[in-house]
Amino acid sequence: LPRVVIIGAGIVGANLADELVSRGWNGITVVEQGPLSMPGGSTSHAPGLVFQTNSSKTMSDFARYTVSKLLSLEEDGQSCFNQVGGLEVATTPARLEELKRKRGWASSWKIETRLLTTNECLELYPLLDRDSVLGGLHIPSDGLALAARAVQLLIARTTKAGVRYLDLTPVTGVERSGGRVTGVTTPKGTIAADIVISCAGFWGVEIGAMVGLPVPLLPLAHQYAKTGSLQVLSAANKPANGANLPILRHQDQDLYYREHGDRYGIGYYGHRPMPVVAASLGSTPEHVDEKNMPSRLDFTAEDFEPAWKASKKLLPVLREAEIAEGFNGIFSFTPDGGPIVGQHPTLDGFYVAEAVWVTHSAGVAKAVAELLTTGRSEVDLSDCDLARFEEVQLAPAYVSETSQQNFVEVYDILHPMQPKESPRNLRVSPFHARQKELGAVFLESRAWERPQWLEANADLLPDLPAQWQPVDRDVWSARFHSPIVAAEAWKTRTAVAMYDMTPLKRLEVVGPGAADLLQRLTTSDVLTNPDQATYTLMLDNAGGIRSDVIVARLEARSFHLGVFSPVALDYISREAREQSRQPSKRWVQTQDVTGGTCSIGLWGPRAVEVMNAVNALDVAQLPHHGFRKTFIAGIPVMAIRLSHVGEPGWEIYTSAEFGSRLWDVLWSAGGVHGVVAAGRAALNALRMENGYRDWGSDMTTEHDPYEVGLGHLIDAAKEGFVGQMALRGRSEKDVSRRLRTLTIDDGRSVVLGKEPVFLDGRAVGYVTSAAFAYTIRKPIAYAYLPGNVLNGAFVEIEYFGRRIWATVTEDPLTSVAARRERP
Ligand code: FAD
Hints:
The protein has 823 residues and is α+β, with helices and mostly antiparallel strands. 26% of the residues lie in helices and 28% in strands. The strands form nine sheets. Strands 7, 8, 9, 16, 17, 18, 19, 20, 21 and 22 form a ten-stranded mixed β-sheet that branches. The protein has a six-stranded mixed β-sheet with strand order 11-2-1-15-24-23, sandwiched between helices. The chain has a six-stranded mixed β-sheet with strand order 34-35-36-33-27-37, with helices on both faces. Helix 2 (57-72) crosses helix 9 (361-374) and helix 13 crosses helix 19. The protein is globular and about 85 Å long. It binds flavin-adenine dinucleotide.
């Protein structure tokens, strides 16, 4: 068993030690700079509210696990979780709608909730102001984590199991040799280790710097205040820090509340962001107490004034009270609000588990323990993976701006398609100038600017045939959407369109061991058809889908790969390094070529005419998945005959300096064939009509290829690929759940994703992707449903509290295929 060092004895570090011990590991040392009895990090003052529901399945799974673990962690008959329930109130009509959406997520992730009227809110929480509250969401299983106590119990339990705790011991460096960690240095000496996990909370940046790892988190101060004693609370007879009332959220004013015995605790996110540099806080003193700890800054009363005013309105009893004490407590924010979990990209054995709320702490610790002991986490980690950030997103200025934005928006109502305001234009493809001329409306993803649709195509709307007319959307799904998308879909299906595919990740895998590596990592034989690219899967060792991937063998030792996320690239690179290190195996290298290259998807029934017009006959004649390095109008390109929209055509790659010329050549040749530039919104609708799955939403490591409907990508004759053993005995026939296509019966209700799906009144699954299918003029959705649900079954999707009937349909939509045949 490896020797493990965990840096930090907060709620994450202590839980991780416990999760590892419970999996049979020993040889674990937890190194903590503060005193163990109260280390002085964020956990030491966390009020511990646990609201489990949010839009991420992963985060909600983590929260549910944290609740169940803290409930089971007992001493003297008292657990570490006070399950008083949670109440989120709405004081605006928009929030009331938002609570319905949140209830939908809760049903999707199997958390029981109840929407309450004003009266019901008052019954549950009599101290609320009746005139302010329009309604609420009650989550009976939410409550208060006794985080500091949990840490002490976990320390006691794991110490008994052999974990060594060193307190008052700052880690000052990380030792390494041959690309692996070998230990940590402290003023008391070096501690040898094969695995080091930094659970240093908001000190993560400083620990990262010891190993050259930019950790994208920003420590920010957040205000928390306590009132003086309140008669109405003391009457309830509870322990000093106890609570009976549900924890309360007033998100319209960026506020939350809990009881501390006879006093109220009030947390506030509405103030200006107050960034902190952890290194500037100095070293943790030997004596730490409630009032004196590095994570606690002085209260800035003026910032709290609006909070106090709003609190007195929502909770009139506070009008008789005063603020007795307060502080500005520090914890981590990140560019996208997710935690940061995973392994250093190049230093093996060094992991981080940071920017984790108490709410998710035990869940994250379990996932990391699973990663370490079995190589995979049961819960999909793509939302939290350190590798999800691209290099440009690790720049301190980017991290600072986006994390502060995240703080500002933490309780806001956010639309899933809402564009980021800033920073923008960090990464643009060589086609950007042309797209701007065409009025592209850009969304940002992984710092890339990607057209959603192009306003120039509004000119097509008057000609749009009746059967392609989009339906009127409800106000929510109409936001950040345009009817122009219908015109782009129409042109793609009936003429030809150019899609900018540059932001998808491209890499080269080269070396004498390249073929071995790719044969081992993918489910298909990528060698037998040398002239054809292969669309295949990469699995984890339990058969979960790590990524889909397109592989083209350019030369004997050189492959081009297209993947859909940086997480996949990180995996392939890590495996390549590991293989190259083994003396018995041949070396292989990977290189991310995304930024130096670009790609156009030229798709549609008339794409071939465009290719003929530029005299690229060799490209025009490529068979399905055939590829070729050649020239188009003198521009060196690589073209693969493949399409994401179900129409004939190619992905054409060239290096960045030729990009704008390639665009112009295709654009002018396509003019007479009706070429348009089209955006992501059309692409998403068309790919769904054709049954194509997106990694990250429709499939993750939580799903095997049979559940996703991609069993045909498993080569039955192939031996020895990652995940093969796990798939033995499984088949498409006997899966317990399956990704299905639903068509929405009323023909007009467009949902957006993550909504729960009900069968016979019971929540059985959730929507992974959704779109309006222009080709059949109906909204569609993908959803995981029980494996035995038949085609033609009726289900209901809950959308803002409204149930919408949908029909389970054959996949891909045969009606689309049929209609595509028309002239
Ligand atoms: P910490 O508890 O900070 O632990 C990290 C540990 O690492 C520290 O003890 C530190 O001393 C140690 N360390 C750092 N550097 C070194 C080093 N070089 N060597 C050795 N040791 C080191 N979350 C919720 O879920 N619900 C809430 O209601 C809630 N309310 C909050 C209210 C406030 C005012 C604040 C500030 C935070 C709140 N949070 C809440 C967030 C939550 O407190 C934190 O996200 C969580 O406690 C982080 O736990 P951790 O174990 O990662 O970090």
